[in-house]
Design a protein that fits this description.
By secondary structure, this protein is an alpha+beta fold. Helix content is 22%, strand content 31%. It starts with a strand and ends with a strand.
Length: 870
């Protein structure tokens, strides 16, 4: 399979360079790449070598044109392959159309909550000649759906991609020729508020998104391209387009939506009964640059039926779907005219089987966070910012499915109908559809469940950004850092990581610092200043760039990002070191966090902050080295060494421990190689964990680092004990829970659908599964296979799809020994197998290339498949 810009189908390319990737099942000797525009050859590259990732930057792209890329590869023994794939350009971001809207706006905060009908737009196109091609480039803010002649064209849900619309706006492109089949054609765009017209709700009593996001009334910009036998035509959105009021009387990303079924026919909410069409209003639109969307779209992936229905009274009942999903309700009922149905969503119920909505209240609005303190959402806001929907029924069949909001829920309470009126109901999981690029299965059903729980919780919170939970839906840099390794092993994250990097770059503050979330929502707790985030949260930019380069090898992204990283370092250097180390939240979520001081209560706070700063410098130094900038590398590695010395002088104790001697302090000291004696520090850390009955008390960073160091130094049984301990994840997953909670313990102020502690899945891949993309890898070209044959596991099946091909590692215990089967892609720079010396291989492998105290190392580069008995 040939991938183009990390995509394999429905590929739109509107700018250079283009990244092309493939894999062969033999050692590659040479390759050639041809690019065709129609039948015309427009580019030819021929090279020697085994490179399977190539960047094309010498092609002249033309708008609304189809291109085919053909790769021919050759092996040493006469092998060859031909790979082909195609992409299409759209308008290259140069729109003829104008931003158009319905011109509605509310005058004060109270009016928002009263609701107003959404906007539907149309353009009628008359054709009297044969159509050869037709495409549309379009973006609707906040969300939009596109229909042509009554059929939906949009392939995803909750379009458009969330970002800082003042800097960049991602548009979509579609081939619409299959939808245009008659002389009169009607193009319909249904708009909703999304993130562009948020509620004036004061999240946590102070953050109003209308004051921090780029906002406006829902609007659209579009270009419709048509090609005929002897001419081309572009129809842009302009003053001739029309709008009317739609069937939604209220919609908000947090608070839900209200729909009037009496205003439209059937299931299509744009097939309105009495539309009052008027000319649209021209708008200047946001200032952001228009760029073709390149990430996977949000869509339905899983449907859950009702597992239990609890009847409260004649007109109220609660449906339990058995698992928490983030997504839509899909509901069919029989009702009478004007009957009103209300839906209330929740992740949990209390002991009386009443919905407990505290964990999903938007910004805690309406929640009593401490005795006598209830968060107020501001003027006109609901008393409790719960997830609610409602619809007014027509007589007969009524079908309600969410369109412009999504909810995190296991339970939904329906009011206004009796259970006999219910025909069908499903909960639909809706998220950015990331392709799985890793799988894990072993002999322990509970460990398998943990793997699935991590997968489900991560996906539940990805909707064009890596959101945290339903309460906020913000992309926190700290959470992204803690989960970056586990995310990249489990899902194809090349495109969404690239977008996330751009999201944080686009929100860099004037001082050069990086925000706590991207888009910036106003939160800057313990930030470095000037609206920037805490040190550990600012780490998201360099860290994600480094992870992306390691796994996907995009050197252009590395080079493009370096100037922003250098400005970020300058912004950090503006603060005195002693002051700078106070600018962080530390190892967030630690069990030993001082809850009386949530901003500064993390263990070893100043020490971990200093380590984050040190890490900033180490990463930028490596990036400079990767780009061949020796002088810059020397500059930043010199700065890093000075900070290391300062850390040692300030935080190292006389006994060799660091800071407050907490688990977090040991983990950070070992991870950043600050200890004089790693073995004694590891033993001290293990003793601390044993004293806590195998509980790792670290927060989100410490746990992520702990999985790395305990695998690196061969203490994998300790991690298994931690994962299995009753006071850890098992307590989180009681009562048939299928998602992770925000915090260990009582989770009193936490979400029941939060992925920040799911970093253990990377350990499943690297330790039990034995598959590691090495630190020095570029585009996953250096691989280490090092499975841990832990005594309490009898078999493991693990795989990971890299950009260079699929890796498999499977092992099983038999009476005669452990059978190990490994499959690795060809054309890697290096692939090493690491095995304990205690196993006798009896010449099943070539002689080892190296060894340490406990292991032999074998070169298995280009070995293909290996099967050994240990």
């Amino acid at each position: 399979m040939l991938s183009i810009n990390y995509q394999t189908e429905n590929i739109i390319v509107d700018h250079l360079p283009i990244m092309v990737c493939w894999s062969t099942n033999y050692p590659q000797k040479s390759f050639s790449i041809k690019v065709y525009k129609g039948a015309e050859l427009v580019s030819l590259i021929a090279r020697e070598g085994n490179n399977t990732i190539v960047t094309l930057d010498a092609i002249s792209l033309q708008s609304f044109t189809s291109y085919t890329i053909e790769v021919l590869t050759h092996g040493d023994n006469g092998e060859n392959n031909v790979f082909r794939n195609s992409f299409t350009t759209s308008n290259l971001g140069h729109f003829s159309g104008r931003w158009v809207s319905g011109g509605h706006h509310f005058t004060n905060d109270i009016h928002y909550y009263r609701g107003k009908r959404n906007v539907v737009m149309r353009k009628t196109i008359y054709l009297d000649e044969d159509l050869l091609d037709a495409y549309i480039s379009i973006v609707g803010l906040g969300f939009y759906k596109l229909y042509i002649n009554g059929k939906e064209v949009t392939r995803g849900e909750l379009n458009t991609d969330l970002t800082n619309y003042a800097k960049i706006i991602y548009y979509d492109s579609y081939n619409i020729k299959p939808f245009i089949n008659q002389p009169k054609n009607e193009v319909i765009v249904e708009l909703a508020d999304g993130w562009f017209n948020p509620a004036p709700l004061k999240l946590f009593g102070k953050y109003n998104l209308r004051e921090t996001l780029t906002i406006g009334e829902p609007q659209v910009i579009a270009d419709i391209y048509m090609r005929f036998a002897d001419r081309e035509m572009i129809i842009g959105s302009d003053a001739d387009w029309q709008y009317c009021e739609g069937a939604y009387t209220f919609n908000n990303i947090y608070l839900g939506e209200r729909l009037d079924m009496k205003l439209f026919r059937g299931d299509n909410t744009t097939d309105l009964l009495m539309p009052d069409w008027k000319n649209v209003v021209l708008s200047n639109g946001p200032e952001g640059r228009l760029v073709s969307s390149f990430i996977p779209k949000i869509n339905h992936t899983l449907s859950l039926g009702a597992e239990h229905i609890h009847v409260v009274d004649e007109e109220t009942f609660i449906i339990d779907f058995g698992a928490i999903v983030t997504g839509f309700i899909d509901l069919s009922i029989t009702a009478s005219e004007n009957q009103r149905v209300e839906l209330l969503y929740s992740e949990d119920v209390d002991e009386n089987y009443e919905l407990n909505t505290d964990s999903t209240l938007a910004g805690f609005v309406g929640k009593q966070v401490t005795e006598g303190v209830i968060i107020d959402g501001g003027i006109g806001a609901p008393a409790r910012a719960e997830q609610k929907d409602a619809f007014e029924c027509r007589s007969g069949k009524n079908h309600f499915i969410n369109a412009f909001t999504c909810h995190s829920f296991r339970y939904v309470q329906l009011s206004g109908i009796n259970i006999e009126q219910l025909n069908n109901v499903q909960a639909l999981s809706v998220h950015t559809v990331l392709r799985e690029n890793g799988g894990f299965y072993c002999s322990d059903p509970y460990i398998n469940k943990l793997f699935e729980v991590a997968k489900r919780t991560k996906l539940n919170n990805i909707h064009s950004v890596f959101g945290d939970c339903a309460r906020e839906r913000f992309a926190y840099g700290g959470d992204i850092v803690a989960l970056a390794r586990s995310q990249v092993y489990q899902f194809d994250s090349a495109a969404i990581y690239k977008k996330t990097i751009f999201d944080f770059i686009n929100d860099i503050r004037p001082c050069g610092g990086v925000t706590e979330t991207a888009p910036f929502m106003g939160i800057k707790t313990n930030g470095v200043g000037g609206e920037t985030g805490p040190l550990g949260w600012q780490l998201v930019l360099p860290y994600l760039i480094a992870i992306h380069y390691r796994h996907y090898g995009n050197v252009n992204l590395l080079a493009e990002s370096l100037p922003f990283l250098e400005k970020q370092i300058l912004s950090l250097e503006m603060r005195d070191f002693d002051d700078l180390v106070t600018c962080c939240l530390g190892d967030w979520g630690s069990r030993v966090h001082d809850m009386r001081n949530y901003k500064n209560g993390s263990p070893a706070l100043h020490f971990t902050s200093a380590c984050f700063y040190y890490y900033h410098l180490l990463i930028i130094a490596k990036i400079c080295d990767d780009l061949g900038f020796k002088e810059k590398w020397l500059k930043y590695i010199g700065k890093a060494n000075k900070i290391r010395e300062k850390i040692l002088s300030l935080y190292k104790n006389t006994d060799g421990s660091f800071a407050d001697r907490s688990q977090t302090s040991f983990v950070f000291a070992i991870y950043f190689d600050l200890c004089d004696d790693i073995e004694s520090s590891l033993n001290a850390l293990i003793d601390l964990i044993k004293k806590e009955q195998n509980v790792i008390t670290c927060g989100i960073f410490g746990q992520s680092f702990a999985y790395e160091i305990f695998h690196r130094y061969g203490h994998n049984e300790l991690i298994l004990e931690w994962l299995r301990v009753e006071a850890g994840f098992k307590k989180m997953l009681k009562n048939d829970a299928s998602t992770l909670k925000e915090f260990f313990g009582d989770n009193l102020n936490g979400s029941n659908n939060h992925a920040m502690f799911s970093s253990y899945s990377s350990w499943l891949f690297q330790a039990l599964g034995g598959i590691t993309v090495a630190e020095e890898a570029v585009g996953a070209n250096v691989i280490l296979i090092s499975p841990s044959f832990t005594d309490t596991i009898n078999f493991v099946d693990c795989w990971h799809q890299t950009i260079r091909g699929r890796i498999e590692c499977r092992w099983r215990r038999y009476k005669k020994g452990i059978e190990l089967v490994i499959k690795v892609p060809f054309n890697l720079k290096k692939c090493t197998l690491k095995l304990p010396k205690v196993y006798q291989l009896n010449k099943q492998l070539p002689a080892p290339i190296d060894c340490d105290t406990y292991h032999h190392f074998y070169d298995i580069t280009d070995a293909g498949e290996i099967k050994v008995l240990l």
